[in-house]
Specification:
The protein contains twelve helices and seven strands. By secondary structure, it is an alpha/beta fold. The protein folds into two domains: 185 residues, no CATH class; 89 residues, no CATH class. The strands form two sheets. The protein has a five-stranded mixed sheet, sandwiched between helices. A two-stranded antiparallel ribbon has the order 5-6.
Length: 298
């Protein structure tokens, strides 16, 4: 049992411990009602306001499409720190000052801490419970995310704490194409497509047990120890926790197959040769030809 799951069980055991929701609920920031859309429709979406999509009619996969990177960061950066990043606590949610200092310490800012996001509802439930336990004042975007989970019946509040109704459901986020502004870098059309592909591959990993099991076996048996070490180093350079084996497996499949933007992933960055990367891709697809987004792969 990993630490976050243990925390979730602990929170379930002490039902009345958490304080009630605060005046944050009065926030004016809201998310529009979601609509069902396929990959092409989502990719082609152009909106100066946040949009919500149910991917391909799959209620387990919800995608939040932000008009810019800073707005996305305000909703998810605190979650990113808790769930994913090396050096951040796994048992306590950071306050605003702590979060800003941590993001600066890894050479990022509000816009660049994460370019896209994928979180299980079970992880988000732990985040909101820990935030309540720590008395953390959530910002307007985080409150809107909490409201979305409640409105979509992905989680409920019972006796003062949150419980997941659909723990394996996934919330993804992506940014719109933008010019470099508002403290964030440019998001090109290729970058947007890459982020969407990358995040959807994570969602499939979470929601398709056959695919997830294949990825685990590929990591364990098809990749050499040197290749695994190269990916661990590559991912740890972006502050992913290299000791989280499941995260290493999930991120490896997403980068290897679903990150076509060379600025985000290439053989040099991962420390392997082009021949090795292409060989790994061919070996992966040879064993699972129906892998996600087959029509979009390079």
């Amino acid at each position: 049992m990993n630490l976050l799951r243990a925390l979730c069980c602990l929170l379930l055991a002490f039902g009345g411990f958490l304080p009630p929701a605060s005046a944050e609920e009065g926030s004016a920031y809201t998310l529009a009602s979601g609509q069902t859309a396929d990959f092409s429709t989502i990719l082609g979406n152009r909106n100066d306001k946040v949009s919500v999509f149910e991917y391909g009619g799959r209620a387990l996969i919800q995608i939040i499409d932000f008009p810019n990177l800073p707005e996305q960061g305000r909703m998810f950066n605190r979650v990113v720190a808790l769930i994913e990043r090396i050096g951040a606590s796994r048992t306590r949610v950071m306050n605003n000052d702590e979060l800003a200092q941590f993001i600066r310490s890894v050479g990022k800012n509000e816009a660049t801490f994460a370019y896209g996001n994928d979180f299980l509802v079970s992880e988000l439930v732990v985040f909101f419970n820990l935030a309540d336990m720590g008395g953390i004042q959530l910002n307007a975007e985080e409150v809107a995310l909490r409201r979305l989970l409640l409105d979509y019946r992905l989680m409920v509040e019972r006796t003062g704490f949150f419980q997941a109704i659909r723990p394996q459901a996934v919330i993804l986020s992506i940014p719109q194409e933008t010019l470099a502004s508002n403290g964030g870098p440019q998001v090109t059309s290729l970058a947007r497509k890459t982020i969407l592909m990358h995040e959807i591959s994570h969602a499939v990993f979470y929601t398709n047990p056959l695919y997830a099991n294949y990825c685990r076996q590929f990591w364990k048996n098809a990749m050499s120890e040197g290749q695994r070490a190269a990916f661990r180093k590559f991912l740890s350079n972006s502050s992913y926790n290299p000791d989280n084996e499941e995260m290493m497996v999930n991120e490896t499949q997403a980068y290897l197959l679903y990150t076509p933007d060379q600025r985000a992933f290439n053989a040099r960055l991962v420390g392997l040769t082009e021949k090795e990367i292409e060989s790994l891709r061919a070996k992966f697809l040879g064993g699972f030809p129906e892998a996600p987004l087959a029509e979009l792969r390079r």
